[in-house]
């Protein structure tokens, strides 16, 4: 027989559940407020004690209301937070299973795709998906099997909330680890984020792709045009992450195509040799906003220098791709100082490291300009007149492949 105390607890629970069942939305919102305030961080035993061993009865009501109202509920975030208390409860794996049995994952993913819902609602949905993923590999697979990776990548690319985007990044990173069956899917979905219009999303996607290089045996090929396309971003944080990923990709099969693409960016298609206003007077050069092509050129010039310094093999391959000619073209770009600066710094490395490059650049610049270059590679281009810049921009330096080698130690 149950004790009087136990009977009283059961009556209290039944009264609470009846109150919920008969309450309208405003009243339920208040009940959720009180529940969240009183139960955050509680363990499964503590929740069962609170609900007289009937906590699952309340969870079932929460999930049922979620199924019925997630498309229009005005207190969706509160409802998801309340469910999160159950899913995050220590020793509460059975709550997670009960939630999943009601189709919880599918509902959470659908929430991410509903444009009329608030960012706060979607962020709470991501947090619940993270709790599911934290339960282990088979739960990560459940999310991925329901097109969860694509939904998360789309939300990352379109969200207007930096906090929500960071939560998505953490979740995608989690799905990309300890989940071998779906690692490639996560990787490919992150690549699809790169062309989006949101710089924060680009930055986070690049960061996660860089981390994944270390955990994947054979990473899927990265479309060169998408990888190099982010180099035209005006946001330095995006360019920084792109460069870090390029460095990681140098150990991958994509290296040759990426280096070829970088070399090509140094000489923009359809470039003009000079941008003048009908005169050769440097003072009358037209002032223009830097185009995305020039931003991309400057980023490529910086990248080839960084990559070359990290690997002699990469440096030799770049020389074979006529990168020296491209760097000189970029130095001659009077329309974009950043192109001149980064190209000059990178060119200095090749000149100082490869005698064949030094010989060709010395010949192309002439003794006076070459001396200026060696004396001050960071500023020498500011002393060039338009004619000299035009000569650089139209140079045809061609270093034979058999000479694009570091001198032997004994040589």
From TrEMBL:
InterPro entries: ARM-like, ARM-type_fold, DUF5578. Pfam families: DUF5578 (PF17741). Gene3D superfamilies: Leucine-rich Repeat Variant. PANTHER family: ARMADILLO-LIKE HELICAL DOMAIN CONTAINING PROTEIN 1 (PTHR34258). This is ARMD1 protein. The lineage of its organism: Eukaryota, Metazoa, Chordata, Craniata, Vertebrata. The gene is Armh1.
């Amino acid at each position: 027989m149950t004790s009087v105390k136990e009977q009283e607890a059961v009556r209290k629970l039944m009264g609470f559940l009846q109150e919920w069942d008969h309450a309208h939305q405003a009243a339920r919102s208040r009940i959720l407020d009180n529940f969240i305030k009183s139960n955050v961080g509680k363990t499964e035993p503590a929740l069962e004690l609170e609900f007289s061993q009937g906590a699952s009865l309340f969870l079932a009501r929460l999930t049922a209301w979620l199924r019925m109202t997630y498309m229009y509920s005005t207190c969706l975030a509160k409802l998801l937070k309340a469910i999160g208390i159950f899913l995050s409860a220590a020793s509460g794996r059975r709550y997670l299973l009960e939630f999943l049995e009601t189709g919880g994952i599918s509902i959470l993913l659908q929430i991410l795709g509903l444009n009329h819902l608030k960012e706060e609602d979607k962020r709470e949905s991501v947090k619940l998906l993270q709790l599911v993923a934290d339960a282990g590999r088979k739960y990560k697979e459940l999310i991925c099997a329901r097109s969860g990776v694509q939904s998360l990548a789309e939300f990352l690319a379109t969200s207007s909330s930096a906090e929500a985007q960071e939560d998505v990044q953490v979740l995608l990173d989690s799905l990309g680890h300890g989940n071998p069956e779906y690692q490639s899917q996560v990787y490919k979905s992150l690549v699809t984020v790169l062309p989006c219009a949101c710089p924060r999303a680009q930055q986070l996607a690049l960061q996660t792709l860089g981390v994944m290089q270390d955990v994947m045996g054979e990473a899927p090929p990265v479309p060169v045009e998408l990888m190099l396309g982010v180099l035209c971003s005006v946001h330095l944080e995006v360019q920084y992450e792109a460069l870090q990923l390029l460095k990681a990709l140098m150990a991958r099969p994509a290296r040759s195509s990426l280096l070829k693409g970088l070399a090509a960016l140094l000489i923009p298609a359809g470039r003009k040799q000079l941008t003048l206003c009908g005169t050769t007077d440097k003072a009358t050069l037209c002032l223009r906003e830097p185009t995305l092509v020039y931003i991309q050129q400057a980023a490529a010039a910086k990248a080839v220098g960084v990559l070359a310094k990290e690997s002699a093999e990469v440096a030799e391959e770049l020389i074979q791709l006529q990168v020296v000619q491209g760097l000189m073209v970029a130095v001659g770009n009077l329309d974009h100082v950043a192109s001149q600066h980064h190209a000059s710094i990178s060119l200095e490395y090749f000149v100082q490291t490869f005698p064949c490059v030094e010989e060709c650049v010395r010949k192309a610049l002439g003794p006076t300009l070459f001396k200026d270059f060696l004396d001050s590679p960071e500023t020498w281009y500011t002393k060039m007149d338009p004619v000299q810049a035009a000569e650089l921009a139209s140079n045809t330096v061609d270093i034979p492949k058999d000479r694009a080698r570091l001198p032997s130690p004994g040589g």
